[in-house]
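Contributing new complexes? Match this layout with protoporphyrin IX containing FE.
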Amino acid sequence: MPAGVLGTEVAPTLLGFAHVLGWAVYIGGAVLMEVVWRPSQEHIPPAQVNVVCSFMGRRYRWIALVALAVLFLSGVGLLLESGHLSTTSPIFRPPLVLSNSYGRTMLALTILWAFLFGLLLMLGVVAHPALHVRMSTDMSNEERRAARAAVGQAIRRMDVLLRVELAGAGLAAFLGTTLRFGGIL
Ligand code: HEM
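Output block (do not edit by hand):
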């Protein structure tokens, strides 16, 4: 009787599961923020947007960062399991070499992953906190106008970053899917 997945392929199955979960959670989160949360902000009073936005932003940042970390770790695990990557020399083994489409696609995917990770750090550490400029009662009209303009600029920057992130996430999923067929680059 065949041993089945859990008899012979436990490690690759768990790594594959972690990888699928990683990209599903990551892309699902990016779609939710861009396609559901951003448009719904226009129908919520500004003061409430501030509260919900800071809570959602904080949560989303950590969920997305963990999902990306899981993607990287499970991806490396899958490469080790398949023997394309080794802990002994040569570290990179065919087809994980630049003369092969699989290797080039994997390199592009890894660079894209690093870009998305950096973008997310920027979203969480710089772009998102800039949305929460405090208005105090002792501010002059001029200072209030400047604070409002700064928030408007931060929202526009956040919008662009979220769109770039969504496009990058989609591209990464496409590149990942082509790996099974030998890569695309
Ligand atoms: C945003 C980042 C990433 C996304 C969206 C992504 C997405 C995907 C998708 C959709 C697949 C095909 C379906 C699957 O097996 O789950 C895949 C496969 C794979 N990914 Fe990723 N991935 C990402 C990052 C990475 C990284 C950083 C690595 C390696 C360090 C990696 C290694 C792999 C491997 C080895 C496979 C299996 C390829 C094969 O069948 O030969 N991925 N990825």
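Reviewers usually confirm one structural detail per submission. For this one: The chain has one domain: 10-179.
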